[in-house]
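Students often ask what a holo structure prediction actually looks like on paper. The answer is less mysterious than it sounds. You provide the chain, you provide the ligand, and the output is a string of discrete structure tokens encoding the 3D arrangement of the protein together with NAP.
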Amino acid sequence: MKARSSTTIISNYKRWIAVIGATGRQGGGVVRALQASGQFKVRALSRNPGKHRDLADEVVEADLSRSETLKAAFEGAHGVFLVTNFGAISALWEKGADELKQATAAVRAAKDAGVKHLIWSTLPNVEAISGGKFNLPHFTGKARIDRIVKEAGFVNHTFVIAPFFYQNLVGSLTPQKQEVGTLGWALPLDPYGRCIHMGDIRELGGIVAGAFAHPDQAGNGEYLPLVGDFLSFNEIVDTLNRQGHKFSFKQVSKEAFAAAPFPGAAEVA
Ligand SMILES: NC(=O)c1ccc[n+]([C@@H]2O[C@H](COP(=O)([O-])OP(=O)(O)OC[C@H]3O[C@@H](n4cnc5c(N)ncnc54)[C@H](OP(=O)(O)O)[C@@H]3O)[C@@H](O)[C@H]2O)c1
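The corresponding structure tokens follow.
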């Protein structure tokens, strides 16, 4: 019989981490960081596993809107990275997905499957922090799920907080042609106000992989935010223009912006 090398034996004992959103930006970074750590086997979850066969050690179907798919998706996994789906901002996300319903189903399924460590990608409760002044469903909706994660009774649980992605500036917030002929942004923001926590969303993966590897330090309900920079819009524009762009920024009223004809305009405003 062929002797098994110690590497094979170690790799057979690697624990599985199942990653929701593995084909997207947050989950994609998590998959790559887990693979780079070499400490875990990675099960990428997707609604269309057939389209992403080589993404990870295993690619398995999971649809947060179809809870019956979640049992098999989490079976045998030591850890789960969970991110939900907010519909209104990005066309990639399902319109109007119910994050509370989806997350509750996922947390329940993970607990039933015997998952030990769940990492939930949350956001701050803007409504509570602002004393009810701001209604921001894609933040507060996620914050409300924290309690469900906490009360589920996993051996370990961790909260990670994504920043405003740098990638938004070449995606949903890509510079637009302005009336004066420049390319740039017209937003309801004081351009001098340092108010944007930004970061390269791919780097969230390192935080998640680190928390799975060190649950003693980061698996007891800690909140781990990723922040690469804390910037005003003028600083963003200056940084990009130093690289050779000629972007402009114009402050517009909240009302004008909210009425703009694109999905999520009112919420961004
Ligand atoms: N943009 C920002 O600045 C920012 C900041 C903080 C937080 N966020 C939050 O980040 C989330 C989006 O994450 P992302 O940007 O990483 O996503 P993304 O790149 O837009 O990709 C979407 C991912 O969601 C998966 N997905 C969609 N519906 C699903 C469902 N019903 N069941 C299972 N998987 C589903 C897709 O997988 P398949 O298509 O393969 O199934 C895909 O992997 C949003 O909730 C948003 O609120 C965004």
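The longest helix spans residues 99-112.
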